[in-house]
Amino acid sequence: MKKIAVIAFLLAVCVAAGRAQESRQDISVSGTALVEPFVASSTDVQVHSNTAFGGLLSYRFMLTPNSALEANYGITYQNSMRFISGNTNTVKVLVRTQEISGAYVRSFTFKKFNPFVEGGPGALIFLPIRNSGTTSLDVKQQTSVGGLYGAGIAYELSPSFDIRAEFRGFVTKVPNFGQGSGTNQINLSTNKWYNIYYPAIGVAYHF
After folding, report:
1. What are 84-122's pLDDT values in tens digits?
2. How far apart are CA 100 and CA 11, in angstroms?
3. Which are the contacts of 69, defined by CB distance < 8 A and separation ≥ 6?
4. Does residue 113 lie in a domain region?
5. What are phi and psi of 35, to 5 degrees?
6. For a disulfide at 30, which of 51, 54, 56, 205, Cβ 3.0-4.6 Å?
7. CA distance 52 to 54
């Protein structure tokens, strides 16, 4: 009986060690900065934004040792978007932004350094915060579909952990928060797409 127990224990240890070596999944938590560029448009609407800071949760499943599928959820604390229409009307919107995206990741291995590139579809959800920082109560939540791209590098701390730094970008339409040309409010539409800069740095756990 003791021999059977010892053999079962050794088998369990071997299986656990084999799985640990394979590590086909990882989860990472990162701090992010969301930087929206200045936008000027043919509709005579200008958009100024400041930087928002937040967090990003990512899950990767390895298809091969060098390729993976990734799912992301991110959220920012808040930032201010200021719309100037016709050089006379100004609408300020305090915004919390959420990201939901998926991507294909291709990585490369150089000893403990693992550079990677990624790209895929996603959506940004712009959530107006209704307080004194928002000057129009007519603004509405808006979801904008776009594309994610990025490149970064991971440094292996141990077989289970690494540090990741990445420059990410998100291409999507500039939101108007439901205040377009067909409404009775001030028109906030720019009819423009913009490239949001979205750097991230964090820690990943492999399992």
Report:
1. 988 788 999 999 999 999 999 999 999 899 999 999 999
2. 41
3. 60, 61, 63, 102, 103, 104, 105
4. yes
5. -115, 110
6. 56
7. 7
Contact (CB, 8 A) for 126 and 107: no
- How many domains is the chain built from? 1
Which is it for strands 45-49 and 67-76: parallel, antiparallel or unpaired? Answer: unpaired
CATH code of the domain containing 35 = 2.40.160.20
Report the chain's mean pLDDT, rounded to a whole number: 88
CB of 96 within 8 A of CB of 129? yes
Q: Is the pLDDT of residue 1 over 70?
A: no
The per-residue pLDDT for 83 is 94
**141: containing domain:** 24-206
Is residue 11, in this structure, part of any structural domain at all?
Answer: no
Q: Does residue 15 form part of some domain?
A: no
The reply to whether 95 falls in a domain is yes
| 10 pLDDT higher than 60 | no
Nearest of 125, 136, 129, 206 to residue 164 by alpha carbon: 206
